[in-house]
Specification:
The protein has 2 domains: 109 residues, Alpha-Beta Plaits (2-Layer Sandwich); 123 residues, no CATH class. It is 17% helix and 32% strand. The chain contains 5 helices and 11 strands, in the order E-H-E-E-H-E-H-E-H-E-E-E-E-H-E-E. The strands form 2 sheets. Strands 1, 2, 3, 4, 5, 8, 9, 10 and 11 form a 9-stranded mixed beta sheet that branches. A two-stranded antiparallel sheet has the order 6-7. A hairpin with a 6-residue loop joins strand 8 and strand 9.
């Protein structure tokens, strides 16, 4: 049996690296007593996999973890309704499991399947006018950004990586839909382009959705139940 869970990474844990967060999940699964399957060989590892890595310092209400259980565990032996609370209790503060579901057979890994993500950018140094001005990044046909990778600098056209920019209804945040295929544009890089008058490190980024694309229509990996508003947990202080 394979499970897929959606979780948050909010608050101080945003400074935890992807690798350290994976270790925290491994410990939490042991604490929760979940019968996770292990690989074979001299150094068995739990069969868990993660979605797109979250940049260190960014936050999310749409993190995904795939968990494979031992073969003798049947779907009826796992209570998916109580599993989110069970795992949340075993995880550090800032990690909360929002929903759990059985992963359908033959479904692609998240690394392969996710085509875009939605982000919200916010800072006490920014105004509604700043967010509105940032939307003008959609106007040019080309948007060149100096980037460094493995010690080498390059000038990349990142405009195709921005699907949409818009202020949220309150005007306090910028909502951005960014492509994840190829060398994706990070929210910190978008902040550099959108708000050149402040330090991009002062801009908080929250990933709210990871999207799958089927026949030109996009849908969430796991939608939240109607009674769950994970955004209220994003405390901006």
């Amino acid at each position: 049996m394979k499970l897929r869970v959606r979780a948050t990474k909010i608050g101080k844990v945003r400074f935890t690296s992807h690798r350290d967060a994976a270790r925290m999940w491994e410990r939490a699964l042991r604490r929760a007593g979940l019968p996770v399957a292990f690989t074979e060989g001299f150094t068995p590892r739990p069969k868990i996999s993660f979605g797109l890595a979250l940049p260190t310092g960014a936050e999310s209400i749409a993190e995904y973890v795939d968990i494979e259980l031992q073969r003798e565990i049947a779907a009826a032996d796992v209570d998916l309704d109580t599993l989110p609370a069970r795992l949340s209790d075993a995880l550090p503060t800032g990690f909360d499991v929002l929903v759990a579901a059985e992963r359908e057979p033959g479904v692609d890994s998240l690394q392969e399947a996710v085509t875009s993500c939605t982000w919200e950018l916010w800072s006490p140094l920014l105004t509604a006018a700043d967010h509105l001005d940032a939307c003008r990044l959609l106007e040019p046909a080309e948007l060149v950004l100096e980037r460094e990778r493995k010690g080498k600098r390059s000038a990349d056209d990142v405009r195709p990586m921005i699907l949409d920019l818009r202020p949220d209804p309150s005007g306090d945040r910028l909502v951005a839909d960014l492509v994840t295929i190829g060398r994706a544009l990070r929210p910190g890089e978008l902040a550099e382009l959108a708000y050149p008058h402040i330090d991009a490190r002062d801009v908080r980024a929250l990933r709210t959705h990871q999207w799958l694309d089927h026949d030109g229509m996009r849908h969430e990996v796991l939608a939240l139940p109607a009674d769950v508003d994970a955004r209220t947990q994003w405390v901006l202080a």
